[in-house]
Design brief:
Blueprint: H1 10-22, H2 28-44, H3 49-63
Helix pairs in contact: 1-2, 1-3, 2-3
Length: 74
Amino acid sequence: MAKYYPDDIRPFEAIAEARRWLAGEVKLPYVKSCILACHMSARESQKNLTAFVAARAIGQSASTVHSARHCMAH
């Protein structure tokens, strides 16, 4: 993702904020907004399959912190 869209930090924020939620530093609604922003990043990069898939995978990974149902193998 960063290779193609270096200024789009939403995927990085989703992971970082999910980790902060796990540490008890931030509230879940805030993290959910970061995860949704990551998914928006994916939608905006649909013309680049690599970036699209990377952002979508990061969003799904970050969302597993609050719900095991978001894990694709679940």
